[in-house]
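Researcher: Structure for this, please.
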Amino acid sequence: MGEFKAQNITSKELSKRPLFVRPPEPPAEFITLDPANSIYVGKTKMFHVPFHWSFMHLTNPHICIVGITGAGKSYFVKTFLSRAAFVWGSNAIIIDWAGEYKAWVKQTGGRIISLGKGDYVNLLDLGGMRPIDRVKQIIRALEILTDIGNYAEQKRLTEQAIEQAYINAGYTPEIAAAKDKAGKELKPPTLKEVVAILEERLRKGTYEFPAELENSIYRLKQFTRPGNDFFAQQSTVKLEELTDVGLVDIDMSGLPDEVMRGLAGLFFLQFLKERMRAVGWATTKGLKVLVVLDEAWKIAADERSDAIMIVREGRKYQFGLIVASQNPTDINEAIFSNVGTTFILRVKFEKFLDYIQGSLGFSNYMREEISKFGVGQCAVNMAFQTTTEFPETFLLERVHGEEPLEEYHLDIGSVLSEQALAAEGAVHAFPFERGELRNRLVEFGLEDTVVNDMIGQFEKGNKTMDVLNFVNYLEDNNVARPNTTAFLKSIGIDDALIIEIFTRLDFTRGGGTV
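Model: Predicted structure, token format:
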């Protein structure tokens, strides 16, 4: 008989033995693909296998990215779009809520559409659609963003007025024609013509419910008043060109509120969905168009959003949707549970981890690893077309981008008690990605010189800055406390610690010493 001998082996070595455990990563043939027809992302954490993304084996080409501010979401998006353009010649359209991609797109030679800063889109542009279909889309957008759906008569009046505006402009409701019988290009009406039709009906005094007319007019006038008529003038953008000109950033940071941004986002999504269907399938490899929604929660959360239609139909038309958010619960379940790939960067809040784990079904070990991620580290979940005998969620060492991923830290040691500092596993600093810090400071309204000075202070401190000094700097530059609080929370600092930070700061600014 043979002898049994004890042997010391590592868990990593044991994981390679399929007789004992399930493989911890997908086989190489599923993730190490032809670099001429896939996107390189990084190396797996366990076996250091190069991971090349393609939707070849997946249910669809759509991607969801979740992670707190500074975890590397925008860094990943920029890397992915750059490589998709190189490998497949993919066009990309970024619906940019806060304008954080604008500088990068400009640097790469892409096109910037700055709504509220000189560019306009006519909400009644057809983009090749029939007027009768476009009317339904406009009404649906208003239902998502306003309470018009609760007022059936106002909804009906608005719909009739939009239809009449198209007829007055020479359009036939059931025909997607852009020319009249003489061959002359038709000019689409605007919301101002729609309001004028409603006002004329009110002046006639023949409608039995004048209050309903008045409310319909009031509702639309918020989009037609001078200085606020971003969607009530003729477009400065030729919609049909957007999917063929490379990289496009639709910068919505110049719009005054979330309703305006939401209306713009829905407008472009509606157009892109119809454009996707009209262009149809092609024999070329890869993806023709990638549409990016970053933190656009208002238009990704509602089940009536055209983002959901793109998810359902995009594969057959070679359109891919990329949705990025720091709050996964803001993304409609129909999107989150049906995307082909989910990239999970650092997530700190338990309720978000509960939601992601419940949706994707990964192990508690994976959950613990996600909560400890540094900047750029991530887990990947892939929904394969066929049943697999290996886990669909695996770890990456780090996203390997086109340029180094620079990680900054806020040191919170100055606001922790001695017991907290000495506690086992205590967190003394919160990391975030430099590019996302710069974007947030610009969003706060700080001038470039101030932003560069702040970046310089992090560099002088070996990429670290004391949290009290950081918050004090923002206060000196008139950044509102709600903005500062939102940033601190977004990188994972809890409410109790934020209160302590401001308490200490107020004490020292008042002349006290800690």
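Researcher: Any notable elements?
Model: The longest strand covers residues 319-325. The mean pLDDT is 84.
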